[in-house]
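Renewal narrative, Specific Aim 1. Our central claim is that a sequence can be written position by position from structural information alone. The example that follows is taken directly from our test logs and has not been curated for this report. It begins with the structure tokens describing the chain, in the order in which they were read.
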């Protein structure tokens, strides 16, 4: 049957789905020995919180001695409606006015916080469609319409936005390095770009209509709305050769007004304590080029991998360099698992030997 489908697709001129392979970097550098991890395995039941205990009595003959219990842990899930009727007292004062008890602070609408948590989890993380989510809730016993579900998903998103902004600010204030990237994304039926910022401890995603340097700096400002002219801002402008008197009537490239705006944004980022000596790791796109930057290993090696060679000598030099880079990367990951000051110095020297070598292949040497 598969051969028949392939033949039909060939006749139609359809190539079929592309075969997507995993990154070779992880495959070639991950340790294969997993036996050492078994000794440190933790019992799953030790991480569980016991909510209920049932004592099962045994039918024993007279004179038997009690020797404690043998535990058996059962995990279960309870999904059922929990309906609360809030009865607010009403009073009439001596002067004829009505006093009504206030609503509890945690109540916002006719659906509770745990139900909204479940809806958000299923829709955003579980990727459950709106129609299926309505059917699921009704099957559980919740009386809800599609319009009410839409309100649960869209209403009162301010706390989520504030939380996401706080995560980004905390990450940018403390991170020694961040990785950044952007990709095309649609929002409100318009094409835009989603910028990702994060490291091992946090991640932030921001969708805007641009992927320029100006947009990236605004994202790094993490919700602050001010522009600051300070030493960092002036240094940014000088590095990009911005003249003192800015003439706005002339069309020049780069635009001096844009450079000045970028500098004021950079000054605001530094004034709020964001990116203190933080290394920005990217795919070498121009909008991410800030003070301290690093190129992702995957993209660095990709430049050599995609390099065209025309002689056997050039091909041999290319493959030799690729092998040295993979080997070095594997040793870097081993060092990360078990740091050693002596190995640190050796790895630094080895890095210089690899990337300062000259092979005689001019294009390859420029990449190095």
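The sequence written for that structure reads:
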């Amino acid at each position: 049957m598969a051969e028949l489908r392939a033949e039909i697709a060939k006749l139609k001129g359809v190539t079929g789905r592309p075969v997507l392979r995993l990154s070779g970097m992880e495959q070639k550098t991950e340790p294969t020995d997993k036996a050492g991890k078994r000794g440190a395995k933790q019992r799953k039941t030790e991480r569980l919180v016991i909510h209920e205990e049932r004592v099962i009595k045994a039918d024993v003959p007279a004179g038997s001695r009690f020797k404690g219990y043998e535990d058996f842990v059962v995990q279960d899930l309870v999904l059922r409606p929990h309906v609360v009727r809030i009865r607010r007292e009403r009073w009439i004062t001596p002067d004829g006015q009505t006093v009504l008890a206030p609503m509890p602070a945690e109540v916002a609408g006719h659906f509770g916080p745990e139900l909204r948590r479940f809806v958000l989890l299923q829709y955003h993380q579980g990727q459950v469609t709106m129609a299926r989510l309505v059917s699921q809730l009704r099957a559980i016993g919740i009386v809800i319409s599609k319009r009410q579900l839409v309100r649960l998903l869209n209403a009162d998103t301010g706390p989520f936005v504030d939380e996401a902004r706080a995560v980004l600010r905390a990450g940018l204030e403390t991170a020694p390095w961040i990785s950044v990237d952007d990709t095309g994304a649609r929002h409100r039926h318009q094409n835009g770009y989603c910028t990702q910022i994060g490291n091992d401890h946090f991640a932030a995603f921001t969708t805007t209509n641009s992927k320029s340097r100006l947009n990236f700096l605004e994202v790094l400002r993490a919700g602050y709305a001010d522009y600051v002219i300070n030493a960092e801002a002036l240094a940014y402008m000088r590095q990009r050769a911005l003249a003192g008197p800015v003439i706005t009537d002339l069309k020049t490239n780069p635009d001096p007004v844009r450079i000045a705006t970028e500098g004021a944004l950079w000054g605001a980022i530094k004034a709020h304590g964001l990116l203190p000596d933080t290394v920005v790791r990217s795919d070498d796109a121009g909008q991410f080029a800030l003070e301290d930057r690093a190129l992702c290993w995957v993209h660095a090696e990709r430049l050599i991998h995609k390099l065209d060679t025309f002689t056997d000598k050039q091909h041999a030099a290319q493959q030799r360099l690729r092998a040295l880079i993979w080997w070095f990367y594997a040793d870097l990951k081993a060092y990360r698992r078990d740091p050693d000051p002596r190995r640190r110095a050796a790895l630094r020297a080895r890095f210089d030997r690899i990337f300062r070598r000259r092979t005689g292949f001019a294009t390859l040497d420029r990449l190095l």
